[in-house]
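Thread: Newbie trying to understand structure tokens

Hi all, I'm a second-year student working on a class project, and my supervisor (Dr. K.) asked me to get a predicted structure for one chain before our next meeting. I've only ever worked with sequences, so writing a 3D structure as a token string is new to me. If someone could post the tokens and maybe explain what I'm looking at, I'd be very grateful. Here's the chain:
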Amino acid sequence: MAKEKKTISRLQRRVQQKRLQRRDLLIISQLRQNARMPLTTISKRTSVPVTTIHGLLRQYEQHIIKKHVTILDFKKLGFEVSRSVVIKADESEKEKLKGRLLESKLVNSAYALDGPANFLVEIIAKSKPEVDEFMQSLQEQFTIFDLLSFEIVDDLKREEVYSDVLLREFHD
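---
Reply by user tm_fold:
Sure, no problem. This is what the structure looks like when written as tokens:
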């Protein structure tokens, strides 16, 4: 049985080489500003034909776009508490703790870390007692060596990398 030759798209090759073209960066920049922007608007702003953008967008979704999301103002929805928590747990319990964090409805984002801690977690809740109860349950269920909790008081900057910088950089 002959091995099938795996075809690789030009975009895949550029991603692997970490060398995206100018038009890729301009399109991504527009999508980072507003993922719901009409392709015709992106086309006008980047001087890239709509059909090209449509094809590239499908490829981006396969190779570099992880997820299209809406960023909410949780306070306006009644969620008064936003915390970042750094957790250092026993090595033998890391996977179980990871599972617990991923299943929790209070955890908005979770990151595995390399270094002196295992996880960085963003928690969104309606009240401080709700967060405290969750944190207490983690400490009771797992051997946690270090737990640092920081109240997030203001969103200074969120999801801005590759948004408007590229337009300033590439437009003459």
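A couple of things are worth pointing out once you decode it. The chain has seven helices and four strands. The CA atoms of residues 97 and 142 lie 7 Å apart. Feel free to ask follow-ups in this thread.
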